Amino acid sequence: MVLPFSGRKDGLSLSEALPDRSLFILVAMMSFLAALTLTGATGARTLSARWAGGAAQLLTIQVSDPDQPAPQQVGAPTTTQQALQTRAQAVLAYLANLPEGTHTHQMSKEELAHLLTPWLGESNKTALPLPAVIEVRLPEGAEVPPTLEQTLNTRIPGTVVEHNAEWSSRLRALAASLLACAALALATVGGIATMITALATRTGLATRRDIIEILHGLGASDSYIAGRFAGRTGILALGGGLVGTILAIAPLVLLFRMAAPFAVSSLQSTAATMPDWRTLPSMLPTDLLISLIALPFAAAFIGWATTQTMVRLWLRRLP
């Protein structure tokens, strides 16, 4: 493998001192891993934020024997419409008193069958009595009435209210742990890249020790020598970062396409469907695209800064 810039000659013969092939490949591998880590962290944060935000405002209400007549309240005036209400209709009527902007949706038999298929198979063919399932999404900032479950059980016995707010804190904790793991992985990748660059620079310095001592004795400044080494290392790291990032694009797009259905709210879609390849680029988070673009330049900076530090420290030890 001969890089387009490997044949350039200078007074230090850096094309021979710094092994361009090994450094280029190793930086490309590190960039590939960093790109995957960034994508995993971004995807986990996006999905967790969407799910946690939805879970905090979402209630699930189960009504047993939904088609049976609703019990009448003792001592309360009863209209003809109320007398003909089923248990599910009575619950929906009470939920209409929730804060304005509340979205209430009773799952149809087809939706419920699709939801229970993994556990019951074709649930529309089962003889088990299935409850009615009502999804309630409160508006942003609204709180669940503390007496909601008690009131519904008093009016319609056997009604179960499941609060999903607990899942919100769990998902936030999960997102925080995933982001911490991603940060640790990125720090590890950056540390490995720094060590690889430092070892390559040290090898190059040892290889050209005699020439560097002569040039340094003739008046070549530390900045000149360090700049020569750092410039070449930075170019190698930039090229490796570009190749690693480009190679990571294919698996990243595939992973985002597979994860896209999980970002859809259950109120928007009852079936997970894969997005079209043509619409996929518009779904990629902007911060991820910016991070991927900046990744090769971050690799180049790590290579440049590490080499500058190593060469300057090495030159100070010269007699």
What does it look like?
- The protein is α+β, with helices and mostly antiparallel strands and 319 residues long.
- The protein is built from 11 helices and 4 strands; from the N terminus they run H-H-E-H-H-E-H-E-H-E-H-H-H-H-H.
- It has helices at residues 14-17, 20-56, 80-83, 87-95, 109-120, 148-155, 165-207, 209-217, 222-259, 280-283, 286-316, and strands at residues 58-63, 103-106, 132-137, 159-163.
- Strands 2-3-1-4 form a 4-stranded antiparallel β-sheet.
- The longest helix is centred in the middle third of the chain and has 43 residues, at 165-207.
List keywords for this structure.
single chain, 319 residues, alpha+beta, 4-stranded antiparallel β-sheet, 7% strand, disordered N terminus
Could you provide a short overview of the structure?
The protein is of the alpha+beta class.
